[in-house]
Amino acid sequence: NLNASPYFATHYLLPRLSLFREILPGADLRLTTMVDLPDFGRDDIDMTVQWGYGGWPEYETTLLVPDPKIICCTPAIGEKIKSAQDLTRFTL
Questions:
Q1: Which of 70, 77, 48, 78 shows the shortest CA–CA distance to 61?
Q2: Long-range contacts: 23-31, Cβ < 8 Å, 24+?
């Protein structure tokens, strides 16, 4: 019983489902989607794929994909940004 966000399920898991079935044809996979972290005691979920910054000490977690951010702005503002601290001066 696997839970994932709707975006992750439709853009990553479902396109690969046929390959998964070829590798493990007898597997009983049940996929649900929800945005919030499931309640493992209530929701009959064995594992979840969640987007977030971690900070879930009560769970065993593994980073699957890093999620770097790119800041986009006008060239005039970009010239004034030399460090991350500079970002606090602008409304972006």
A1: 48
A2: 29/2, 30/1, 30/2, 31/2, 31/3, 31/4
- In a domain, residue 64? The reply is no
User: Which residue(s) pair with 31 in the sheet?
Assistant: 2
- Each residue of 16-42: pLDDT tens digit? 999 999 999 999 999 999 888 888 889
The two structure tokens encoding residue 58: 């009560």
For residues 48 and 4, is the Cβ–Cβ distance under 8 A?
A: yes
The residues pairing with 7 across neighbouring beta strands, listed in sequence order, are: none
The CA distances from residue 80 to 40, 68, 71, 74, in Å, are 47, 21, 13, 10
- What CATH code is carried by the domain that includes residue 45? 3.40.190.10
Q: Is residue 91 pLDDT above 80, yes or no?
A: no
Q: Predicted confidence band at 92 (pLDDT cuts at 50, 70, 90)? A: low
